[in-house]
Amino acid sequence: MSSAMLILPVMDITAKYLSQDLPPLEVTFGRFFFQFLISLVLAVVTGRLAHLRGQQPVINYLRGIFLAAASLCFFTAVKFMSVATAISIFFIEPMVLTILAALILKEQVGIRRISAILVGLVGAVIILRPNLAEIGLVSLLPVVTAFLFSFYLLINRLYPVTDGLLTIQFSAGLSGSLLLGTALLAANLAGIEGMEFLMPSGGQSGLLVLIGLISFGAHGLVVAAFQRGSASLLAPLQYIEIVSATLFGYLVFSDFPDGPTWIGIALIIGSGLYIAHRERKRNSRVQPAVADV
Question: For residue 153, what are the domain limits?
Fold first, then answer.
C-alpha cells in the first residue's frame, strides 16, 4: 500500500505535465487505453484470455466508468492547480463515503464521525477558498472526484470483488477507454475547443504509456494490499500520497502548499484518520459474531 501511494503521484505529475500541451480528456483516455492494452497482452501471454469476462462483467464495467470519470475530473484539476492541493481536497473522500453509506446503505453514523466529517469539510473549505478566487469553479473538480470515487467504493461494498486482478484491470481499462474515447470523438465532431484530439509526439506517447504502466502497477498493489489487510488498517497509509505529491510537485513544478493549505490538510488528514479509527472499532465489535457463523 505504501509503495502504491509513493508512485501514484508520479502518474498525476506526468498527467499535469502532459496537460500543458494535450487536452486532459486525451491524457485520461491514454491512461485507460494503455491500461487496457497491458492487461490484454498479459492475458494473452499467460493464457488467461478466457477469464477476462469475469463473473460480474456489468459491475466490473460500472466500476471502470466511475473510475474513468473520477480520473478525468482529477487530471483536469491538476492542469490548473498543484497536484498536492488537488490530492488534499480529494481526501475528503472518506467523509463523502461515510455520508453516502449512511444515506444509501443505511449504515449508522454516530455523533463522533459526524463531527469528524464537519472538521474535514472545514479543512477542505480552507484549501478551496483561495483556489476558487484564483482559478474559479475548476478548483471544485477534486471534490467531484471524491464523490465519483466514493460511488466506486460504494459499488465495491454492495458487490464485493470476486474476479482476479487481471480481470479487474482489463474491465476498468476497456470501459474507461470506451467512455473516454466516445467523449473524445464527440468533442472533435462538435469542435469543442480544448477537448479536441491532438497527435502526441514520440515523447508524449512514451509518457502516456508510462501513465498506463503506473496505473496498472499501482492499482495492482492497492488491490493486493486490501486482499491482505483490512480497509481500516490500510486507510491511514493513503495519506503518504500527499507527502509524495508535495515532494514531486516541488521538484518538477516548484509547487509547495502555503500555510493555510497545510492547516486544511492537517484537518482533513486528522478527520480521515479518526473515521478510519471508528471504522476499525466498529468492525472489531462485529467480528466475533461473524466468526461464530
Answer: 2-292
> In terms of C-beta distances under 8 Å and separation of at least 24 residues, what long-range contacts does 105-111 make, across chains too?
105/154, 105/157, 105/158, 110/278
Residue 29 has pLDDT above 50, yes or no: yes
Q: Which amino acid is at 275?
A: I
pLDDT of residue 53: 85
Q: How confident is the model at residue 289 (pLDDT cuts 50, 70, 90)?
A: very low
Provide the number of structural domains found in the chain.
1
pLDDT of residue 214: 93
> If you average pLDDT over residues 255-275, what whole number do you get?
90
pTM assigned to the model: 0.89
Going from the C-alpha of 195 to that of each of 186, 199, 208, the distances in angstroms are 9, 13, 17
Measured from the Cβ of residue 33, the count of other Cβ atoms closer than 10 Å reads 21
Amino acid at 221: L
- The C-alpha cell 476558487 sits at 132
User: Would you say 14 and 220 are in contact if contact means Cβ atoms under 8 Å apart?
Assistant: no
